[in-house]
Automatic annotation (TrEMBL):
<dbReference type="GO" id="GO:0004163">
    <property type="term" value="F:diphosphomevalonate decarboxylase activity"/>
</dbReference>
<dbReference type="InterPro" id="IPR053859">
    <property type="entry name" value="MVD-like_N"/>
</dbReference>
<dbReference type="InterPro" id="IPR036554">
    <property type="entry name" value="GHMP_kinase_C_sf"/>
</dbReference>
<keyword id="KW-0547">Nucleotide-binding</keyword>
<comment type="similarity">
    <text>Belongs to the diphosphomevalonate decarboxylase family.</text>
</comment>
<protein>
    <recommendedName>
        <fullName>diphosphomevalonate decarboxylase</fullName>
        <ecNumber>4.1.1.33</ecNumber>
    </recommendedName>
</protein>
<keyword id="KW-0444">Lipid biosynthesis</keyword>
<dbReference type="GO" id="GO:0005829">
    <property type="term" value="C:cytosol"/>
</dbReference>
<feature type="domain" description="Diphosphomevalonate decarboxylase-like N-terminal">
    <location>
        <begin position="25"/>
        <end position="175"/>
    </location>
</feature>
<dbReference type="GO" id="GO:0005524">
    <property type="term" value="F:ATP binding"/>
</dbReference>
<dbReference type="InterPro" id="IPR041431">
    <property type="entry name" value="Mvd1_C"/>
</dbReference>
<keyword id="KW-0443">Lipid metabolism</keyword>
<dbReference type="Pfam" id="PF22700">
    <property type="entry name" value="MVD-like_N"/>
</dbReference>
<dbReference type="InterPro" id="IPR029765">
    <property type="entry name" value="Mev_diP_decarb"/>
</dbReference>
<keyword id="KW-0067">ATP-binding</keyword>
<feature type="domain" description="Mvd1 C-terminal">
    <location>
        <begin position="200"/>
        <end position="326"/>
    </location>
</feature>
<dbReference type="Pfam" id="PF18376">
    <property type="entry name" value="MDD_C"/>
</dbReference>
């Protein structure tokens, strides 16, 4: 399905229970990373980023307005949400309520199929699904662009999961007044030539990470002497990436994605104190990717705020790449993802 159709699908609300909506969204993996904020409250990023939405690990979220209730009731995988996760979801609902002029609390049920907190973008699919479901349940009439801006307020990378396939998230106008800067930072689909890619995900550690991406990003911007140079080079990477995607040049897409991700990890390693997400198992997988290339297979790695490695390759080579990576991943689970769809509403009615 092309991205424009998906965007329209988001806006088509079938009938359902009053003030209740269910939405589904998939994670995305950045090929040009988002790392660093200009504004923490509005979640305005320092740089543009670009991602591929996956066809695996969907998150399904149901929001039901609960007039008269004294507080929001949030469950993740059937268990009550706690701590930071709960705080972020309630803050997001507050934002939706403010826009909708409602004081209704809500019951939120989320089912994640991705291991939470493992650098596998569970917050991206999570806040994208929540944005679509909550906006509908509270009767906000938002188009896909506005929904991407709303999802951004939950987690920056979530803005990109509104759309399918390849997606750019604009950093927006940094020189503008707050309202304009907010309006100008949204995601949209990126045209791509024939690529037929796959992303082999090597889960070397599915446990939650020690340092959240939010905290690591802040520390990097505040203390890493390598942050500014990376941000400057990331701009050039994005231009080159868009060109490579447009002409369907997967080799160049992979080359740029790998250097951009390793550069991001270099910025963290230079933070004070250093943030290091790579584990010995990650390095072994990175070595296996180098070996695949020496053997003539198109394979390039990217990594996020965790030790897991994602390998971009041709769809036709996915099983071979998965086999090699499995051998290197020291018993970790291997998943093969392809480009996936944007967020969509399953049922919903905001009355
Ligand atoms: C390394 O979107 O999780 O995955 O905006 O603070 O919620 P917050 O951060 P988040 O950061 C994702 C960082 C990344 C790179 C990326 O997805 O672009």
């Amino acid at each position: 399905m092309v991205a424009e159709q998906q965007a329209t699908a988001v806006l088509t609300a079938p009938t359902g229970t009053a003030g209740s909506a269910t939405a589904v969204a998939h994670p995305n993996i950045a090929l040009i990373k988002y790392w660093g904020k200009l504004d923490e409250r509005l979640i305005l990023p320092r740089t543009d980023s670009l991602s591929m939405t996956l066809d695996i690990f969907p998150t399904t979220t149901r929001v039901r307005r609960s007039p008269g209730a004294g507080h929001d009731e949030v469950t993740l995988g059937g268990k009550p949400a706690q701590g930071e996760a709960e705080r972020r979801i309630v803050a997001f609902l507050d934002l939706v309520r403010e826009r909708a002029g409602s004081t209704d609390r809500a019951v939120v049920d989320t089912e994640n199929t991705v291991p939470t907190g493992a650098g596998l973008a569970s917050s991206a699919s999570g806040f994208a699904a929540l944005a679509v479901a909550a906006a509908t349940a509270y009767g906000l009439d938002l188009d896909a662009t506005a929904l991407s801006r709303l999802a951004r307020r939950g987690s920056g990378s979530a803005s990109r999961s509104l759309f399918g396939d390849f997606v750019v998230w604009h950093a927006g106008r940094h020189d503008a007044p707050e309202e304009e800067a907010d309006l100008s930072s949204y995601a949209e689909p990126v045209p791509a030539g024939p690529l037929d890619p796959a992303l082999v995900v090597a889960v070397v550690n599915a446990g939650p990470k020690d340092v959240s991406s939010r905290a690591a990003m802040r520390r990097t911007v505040d203390t890493s002497p390598l942050f500014e140079p990376w941000a400057v080079s990331s701009k050039d990477d994005l231009t080159a990436m868009r060109e490579a995607l447009g002409r369907g040049d997967l080799e160049t897409v992979g080359e740029i994605a790998e250097r951009n991700a390793l550069g991001m990890h270099a910025t963290m390693l230079a933070a004070r104190p250093a943030v290091r997400y790579m584990s010995p198992a990650s390095l072994t997988v990175l070595d296996s990717v180098l070996q695949l290339r020496r053997d003539g297979v198109l394979a390039y790695a990217t990594m996020d705020a965790g030790p897991n490695v994602k390998v971009l390759c041709r769809n036709a080579d996915a099983d071979r790449v998965a086999g090699v990576v499995r051998g290197a991943a020291q018993g970790g689970a291997i998943h093969i993802a392809r480009p996936g769809p944007g967020a969509r509403l399953l049922t919903g009615d905001g009355r």
